[in-house]
Amino acid sequence: MITLTINGKQVNAQEGKTILEVARDNGIYIPSLCYNEALAPAGNCRLCTVEVTIGNRTTLETSCNYPILEGMVVKTDSQRVSAVRQLVMELLLARCPNPKKVKEVAEEVGVEAPPLRFSLENEYCILCGLCVRTCTEVVQAYALDFEGSGVNKRVTVPFNEASQDCIGCGSCVFICPTQVIKMREIENAKVIYPEGEDNLGPQRMMQSWKTELNLTKCKECGNPIAPEKQLTWLREKMLLPLDFFTYCQTCRTYPHIDEEKCLGCGGCADNCPCGALELKEEDDEIKANCYTVNCTGCRICVDICPRDAIS
Amino acid sequence: MKIKDEGELKKISEQAKSMLAPSEVRIQIGAATCGLAKRAKALKEAIASEVKKLKVKAQIVEVGCNGMCYQEPIVEVIQKGKPKLTYGAMTAEKAVPLVKAIKDGTTMRENLLFKTEREEILTTGESIGYLSDQASGSLPEITEFNKYPFYQKQKKVVLRNSGRIDPMSIEEYIACGGYRGLAKALRMSAQEIIKEVTDSGLRGRGGAGFPTGAKWKACQEAKGETKYIVANGSEGDPDIGMHRSMLEGDPHSVLEGMIIAAYAVGASKGYLYVSNNYPLAFMRSKEAVRQAKEYGLLGETILGSGFNFEVEVDEGGGAYVCGEETALISSLEGNYGEPKPRPPFPAQKGLWGKPTVVNNIETLANIPVIIAKGGSWFSSIGIKGNTGTKVISLSGSITHPCLIEVPLGMKIKEIIEIGGGVPEGKKCKALATGGPSGGVLPAQSTSLPLSYDELSRAGSLLGSGITVIDEDTNMVDLAHYFLSFFKEETCGKCTTCREGVKKMYEILYEICQGHGEDGDLALLERMSQPMSDGSLCALGKTVPRVVTSTIKHFKKDYEAYIKGKK
Questions:
Q1: N or C: which end of chain B has fewer CB within 10 A?
Q2: Nearest residue on chain B to A69, alpha-carbon basis
Q3: What is the pLDDT confidence band of residue A243, given thresholds at 50, 70 and 90?
Q4: What is the distance in angstroms between the Cα of B539 and the nearest Cα belonging to chain A?
Q5: Do residue A117 and residue B489 have CB atoms under 8 angstroms apart?
């Protein structure tokens, strides 16, 4: 356990935590734009800067990636810290004057508008890198990265062409704070040429990444489930059977367990790839039970049950 | 042929000395980038053809930069019975009378700068003599090297061999006491070596001035089997050529320093990172590594000790930000050259997460001498807390742009005089001692001593160059230029640096176009502290200095622009 002081208050925290984590654990608010607790900290936006004193040395550091040390004294609201936050938001407002999130956070730190002298751009991307880190660390598709350097930096896919690696999961769309990453679905994509047209079926367009993905249709109702590439990727990564994603959520049927026939052997529970089946004790009897939330309708249990108790 | 032990090293040194003071004639031509730019190749061909024509038995050798950039191409003649003669500003036409004089045994007086009778070998205390066999042959009327105004106040430690030896010949390096520091180090313990380096007071020569001994100690104490030494030769400043001259003129001095550092901290692999700005330096560094390996000074069981060390020479992309140690590490790893937050510090977790020492190549070139002569010898040079020498590129409004090495503590005024001072009719207006990152200092600062602490106190830093700025330069134009440099070189990670540089640059541009507004200076000053506080690395932290130092000392230049006059 480490003891440190934040804004005059002594707090205890585990070694290995960052200043931002400890502050948030203790109800002390530090603004940030590029931080997400599910991702490794980046320190790109600089908004979470705090004043850190170790011994007799005071420096300004980003709290999202600075490890706590015994006896450290942290100030999250000194004049120097406020000045950094203000400048960051003035600069971001000048670069991205329109995104809602930028305006919200600017108001939070007390910035109404950038100085009139700052020329205005019309970017939406704040170069926080959340999309890159999400695609790299969580999804692990490695489809996105920064390109260019310095003032020309931007997020893109290799060679700015349709991505070979994007699985169309939309995690980047979800995580982007300014909602600049766009995706949409077309019910029936077509290629129209003078002699006729080709129907490509339903497609998801990751517009920001110039990538088009065919959607797999449900065997039962024909509605799109998810991009084929994504389902293949998931099947390969998690070693799932080939017919795993055949039905959509609506058409999927769930196991019905005939309790008279059920032995409680646990064969279905052991072989269920999603942990949807479990043995449960009821009235002194052990029977199989299904959590439909986890079930993806692969029907492995139907085949496996020695008593044909599952339908 | 692998050198098995120190005894063999000494033998080679003795034998190789005759290469430098041979029985036949040796003609040295300065063929570093500065010499080559002044047609040293054509000069070499002219000399070679004359030598052939007159049937003179002579060795013609390309050497590195001796610092007298304004006298390139330099030709030095070593002939038995005469002192070493140094000729400056030579041309292909002058090759004819020169070779004739050599053949006849006379001395060409045209373009003759100075003579050298004895050259000291720092690491061994020996010397090489170029003595005349008769009194008349000693040319008493020609100035001796040590009394030649350009060299009188200099002290060569880092540049001890540059300009004297063929940089592509490891034997000539050995002849000048090369690898003797290493041989001594291999007889010492890691702690003893680190103590010598700490006692010497050597501080990082890259500008930050961190005590080298402390850095080595932290890495030596760090836990881990695999450790690395990284030599930072990624000089990206627009005004200096120090790394270029060092690696073109004497790459082995850096290698030897790397090997000693590796032995002290327990590293098994080293990387010499050279910016792609310097293709000749890169090529010569690679050749030096190859030769060192061939002679057993790199690789397994160096000089018979149990110590193994390999070095790879890597080419950087030329980004200024890659001079920052964590950005350099990132670049070596194959990633984007972007700084990483510290802690953890590279000494604990650096290249590929292993304990790493990143040292400037100038810092490393000092090491063999510190080990050979002891830390207290080194600390006797310079002033308290700022010991040793510093290599300085003198540029700007100066009579003789050059590369010199002076003891720390020397007054900047004196250093400028070595380069001939400000040209006739001009007056010094300002100084830039740390490149764009150091901002500017007013002319009175020439009375300051060259030292990390003094320059830091004055609001600048000790880099590897002193640029003299005269009254013809408008400081606003200079600030605009420095900001355009930063705009190119910012890596773009931090909002404060990337966007801040963009906006500062735009405002300066407007001012230079005559569209400055009254609130501009106040805005630039208001941005400065938070920009510095909010940025991760030294690049972002020092950009505001361009603006704050020029406004502080040269507000009139700004006001003239803003109020419509120029």
A1: N
A2: B343
A3: confident
A4: 12
A5: no
List phi, psi (to 5°) of B479: -60, -40
Q: Provide the residue range defining the domain that includes B187.
A: 170-377
B491 interfacial to chain A (CB closer than 8 Å) = yes
B544 contact residues in A (CB cutoff 8 A): none
Q: Would an 8 Å CB–CB cutoff place B498 in contact with chain A? A: yes
Q: How far apart are CA A155 and CA B57, in angstroms?
A: 65
Q: Which of B365, B384, B385, B360 minimizes the C-alpha distance to B123?
A: B365
Residue A8: name the closest of A47, A56, A46, A53 by CA.
Answer: A53
Q: Residue B164 phi/psi, 5° resolution?
A: -105, -30
Prediction ipTM score:
0.91
pLDDT, tens digit, 9 for 90 and up, residues B177-225: 999 999 999 999 999 999 999 999 999 999 999 999 999 999 999 999 9
Distance CA A190, CA B28 (A): 75
- B345 shares its domain with B396: no
Out of B311, B346, B377, a domain closes at B377
Question: CB B530 to CB A152 under 8 A?
Answer: no
B335-382: pLDDT as tens digits: 999 999 999 999 999 999 999 999 999 999 999 999 999 999 999 999
- Which residues, numbered 330 to 389 in chain B, qualify as contacts with chain A under a Cβ-Cβ cut-off of 8 Å? 336-337, 341, 343
Cis status of the peptide bond prior to B73, with omega within 30 of 0: yes
User: Domains in chain A, start-ordered, CATH in brackets?
Assistant: 1-119 (3.10.20.740), 130-184 (no CATH), 187-238 (no CATH), 253-311 (3.30.70.20)
Report B:509-548 residues touching A (Cβ under 8 A): 517, 519-520, 523, 527, 529-531, 533-536
B536·A152 Cβ contact <8 A = no
